[in-house]
Amino acid sequence: MLTGLRGRLEAADRRNLIRVMPAKGAEMSTSATADVLVIGGGVIGLSIAWRAAQRGLRVAVADPEPGGGASHAAAGMITPISEAAYAEKELFRLGRESQRRYPAFAAELAGLTGKPTGYRQAGTLQVAYDADDLAILGEYQALQESFGVTVRRLTARECRQAEPMLSPAVRGGLLAADDASVDPRLLTRALVAAAVLAGVDIIRQPAAEIRTAGGGHGTAHDGTAHDGPAGHGTAHDGPAGHGTAHDGPAGHGTAHDGKAHDGKAHDGTAHDGPASHGTERDRAVSDSRVAGALLGDGTRILAPWVVLAAGWNSATIAGLPPGVAPPVRPVKGQILRLRSGTGGPGTSGPDGMPGLLARSVRGIVHGSAVYLVPRDSGELVIGATQEELGADTRVTAGGVWELLRDARTIVPGITELELAEAVAGLRPGTPDNAPVLGPSPLPGLVLATGHFRAGVLLAPVTADVIAEYLATRRLPDLAAAFTPRRFDRSAGSAGAAAAPGRSGRSQPRAAGRNPASEGAPR
Predict the structure, then answer these.
(1) Is the N or the C terminus of the chain less surrounded, counting Cβ atoms within 10 Å?
(2) Domain ranges across the chain
(3) Using an 8 Å Cβ cutoff, are 302 and 289 in contact?
(4) CATH 3.50.50.60 correct for 4-68+191-328+434-490
(5) What's the pLDDT score for residue 149?
(6) What is the pLDDT averaged over residues 406-429?
């Protein structure tokens, strides 16, 4: 297989790759064009790329390690009911809808690629260790029922009938039968395969800088030709030299139905028309539009639409005008993987079920939360801490000890398993713990980040929402509560992130592990 520049030129038909003649003394560089560039190849970015390509768009994904990062560390719980928290009803509804779409999403992936996703719908059993924990579980039940969800209350005996390996000390539980799980490592492999089959170009390079083009100056900020006002239905001949009208996803500024556009997005927020923004920040970006990105190896990807789905790194990529970067921060989560020390990952437990447990178990132990997620392979995932320590991915003895201590308290048999892996991932947290979805103040830049602990859960619905917007210029009502504009209406905006060392989540006290809390880097 050819590599380097020659290999790229061999792929010109697929990537529309061209050579850009440099100025005297400069190095040769390469460029590629696409309708949509997705920055970030985790479960969110890959899902969006796949769905957008299915709609006929030419899509490229830039990520040095597709399927890595938080997606690689994640436990993969699909548990909107068990994850429900106070003041997050809209987020619960979004998660519930994504959960509803998951069976078809996983089945389509497996059918197209022949690769497994590890999807299994066996429910989640929430259990309480002592009387105080049982009272907290009652708070969970009241909250879930306030959202219109009925969960089944189980006695201690019924809990152990459902999961025989639970400790006899467990006092009771709640069964959420609709909950499911997936193996994120298998899922991302299937997503890469499906995306490639759909024509997506996976570029294993980081995005070093987002490039913009002047509104009417005809020149991109990187010096490449960019005809007209950045895609408002005019010819876009750029470096590729096609000279034909290039309206990409729904016309780049013309109304999708051919009628006059009033400058308003479907969700009621200001759209990307130059006159539609009233704030100083909006005026600063109104004369610019996304033109693509510069990658780590010097390759320029020219694209009128860029989807920023780089997790917590979404706020760190160069080239964004002030006020445009999403308010995301890294939230550390340590997570463990156990397996049988004798039979290996394929070992099955009692009654032919894999490992110690038949379903995901979430425990409350002296006010701290822990979860255990079984895999069909026999692997058992235990998580997770929640630590406001910046971009710290060290696995610590204290974090491992806390997780094993609490997991052993409710499932004593884990002490016989091999500790196969201990990792730390970085979740993308936002001031309100909800994702940021939809068009940004910079025309052409679409945000799909900030999913915090729910990246795997929200992948199907996020992909559908963003692909719909790219194809039609209309954001589905389901995402109206999660647009970037909500931070303009909140005090402190990006500065409202949780203080270091504390969880920013408001929910029953069982949700907080001190100093870390439940929730995988999902």
Answers:
(1) N
(2) 4-68+191-328+434-490, 124-177+329-429+499-522
(3) no
(4) yes
(5) 86
(6) 96
